[in-house]
Amino acid sequence: MSELLSEAEARDAADGLAGLRDRFVLDGAVYLDGNSLGALPAHVPARMEDVIRRQWGELRIRSWTEGGWWTAPERVGDRIAPLVGAAAGQTVVGDSTSVNVFKALVAAVRMAREDGGGRDEILVDAATFPTDGYIAASAARLTDCRLRPVAPAEVPSALGGRTAAVLLNHVDYRTGRLHDLPALTAAAHAAGAYTVWDLCHSAGALPVGLDAHGVDLAVGCTYKYLNGGPGSPAFLYVRRDLQDRFDSPLPGWNSHAEPFGMRPGYEPAEGAVRGRVGTPDILSLLALEAALEVWDGVSVAAVRAKSLALTDFFLRCVGEYVPAGRVESVTPEAHAERGSQVALRCPSDAGGVMRRLIGRGVVGDHRAPDILRFGFTPLYVGFADTERAARVLAEVVG
Ligand SMILES: *Cc1c(COP(=O)(O)O)cnc(C)c1O
User: Fold this and answer.
1) How far does residue 129's CA lie from ligand 1's centre (Å)?
2) Total structural domains within the chain
């Protein structure tokens, strides 16, 4: 047995989170794609059986009130809140991340306008996940703003008296680089601008500290590190003291102060509910709620510590096993700059390499043109998995 493998086995044996793996449905594959679709928590199918057969099938319309369906968006939001460092009452779940980016960004510009000073510029992460960029471009057109793509590190120097809002990805989906949320939020505030953070690759992977760092607005996926299931609804955070000023560009009846008053005029509800739009997607929402139970008693700090240990170990194993020159990490070495994934540039046939890896039971993904992405979900990935992934990669590219 190689030294790295025996080290891996010793570290798995000492890992306080190792027992959580049994709470997921997994097979013999090494699943390193939880940053795209988290694995299924084992208790979710039975819960959904109850939701569908009893709540829908038997209680029918009564479930909206007696079964707690109507208030599920806020309730599930409050379940996610501690995972991203938010006190209760500021997070609501519903719609996709794309839709929430739209709500948050337009609302941010509206708040900046209300502050005065004729602000007319939106800064967007130049390397953003594409949907955020497309939505930002449309939000800019609708609000008569200029959209300026800027590398996150350049944001402090790009901010100015014209900046209304800044839309940033907390972790770059391609490289796995973690951006400095506290410093960038503070810089935006010093310039009088509002921040919208996209937490798709940090929620459930690392401490975010939304309240502690004074973030204005945030959105995030629940089907990646939160394991909510394919297309599970996203979350929207609106800081408490901004809620009265949150003027949604999608003011549906679910965010009305009196939704069943069926009044012709819109009057927004108070609190996080203001971020809702229409009827929630109950099946997906309740699958997410069930999935979040795996977090009971789990600290995000412990998850982060294991995540960094896993990605460090993966980089070490890749360095030892993979012949020089075949792959090159584009993920930062520094812990303060690393999310929970490792991205390797593979100049020669990255797509084919990933297909062969998957064929041999190591599941990551390929991002065009030449990136191999490996996501590490500490709830169910261990050190021996990590060693095996690097060993198989070495065989495939060697
Ligand atoms: C995964 C991801 C999305 C996905 O948005 P959807 O609306 O759920 O399709 C958006 N932004 C980022 C940064 C992502 O990583």
Assistant:
1) 7
2) 2
